[in-house]
């Protein structure tokens, strides 16, 4: 699965994804995070879809408000580090600093 496939997922969460499709989404995240310049909203949305959660369910799981999650996925707000940590935690990611290639 390439990153274009991940970004073109339907906006609505589908609970009928099979285990293979969920595993493919999770594997796609592993390659998408370090290799692309995908926006935070795209990454969070993909994580949410992989978990088969609605925005409301994922927000509750991560202890953030649904309104904040919606704004982050839409790219219409700045994300606080604490909020980002909460949204990444279910997938074992954390916020960090990396050196960019020169």
Description:
The chain has six helices and no strands. It is mostly helical and 102 residues long. It has a single domain (3-91), classed as lambda repressor-like DNA-binding domains (434 Repressor (Amino-terminal Domain), Orthogonal Bundle), CATH 1.10.260.40. The protein starts with a helix and ends in a 14-residue tail after the last helix. Residues 1-10 have low confidence and may be disordered.
Instruction: Tally the beta strands.
Output: 0
**CATH overall fold name:** 434 Repressor (Amino-terminal Domain)
Structural class by SSE content: mainly alpha
Number of domains: 1
- Level-2 CATH architecture: Orthogonal Bundle
Runs in which pLDDT lies below 50 for 5 or more consecutive residues are 1-10
Cα radius of gyration in angstroms: 13 Å
Q: What is the overall number of helices? A: 6
Q: What are its keywords?
A:
6 helices; 102 residues; 434 Repressor (Amino-terminal Domain); 0% strand
């Amino acid at each position: 699965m390439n990153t274009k496939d991940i970004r073109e997922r339907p906006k609505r969460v589908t609970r009928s994804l099979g285990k293979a499709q969920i595993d493919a989404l999770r594997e796609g995240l592993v390659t998408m995070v370090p290799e692309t310049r995908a926006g935070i909203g795209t990454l969070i949305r993909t994580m949410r879809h992989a978990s088969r959660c609605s925005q409301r369910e994922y927000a509750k799981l991560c202890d953030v408000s649904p309104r904040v999650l919606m704004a982050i996925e839409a790219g219409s707000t700045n994300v606080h580090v604490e909020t980002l940590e909460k949204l990444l935690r279910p997938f074992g990611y954390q916020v960090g600093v990396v050196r960019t290639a020169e």
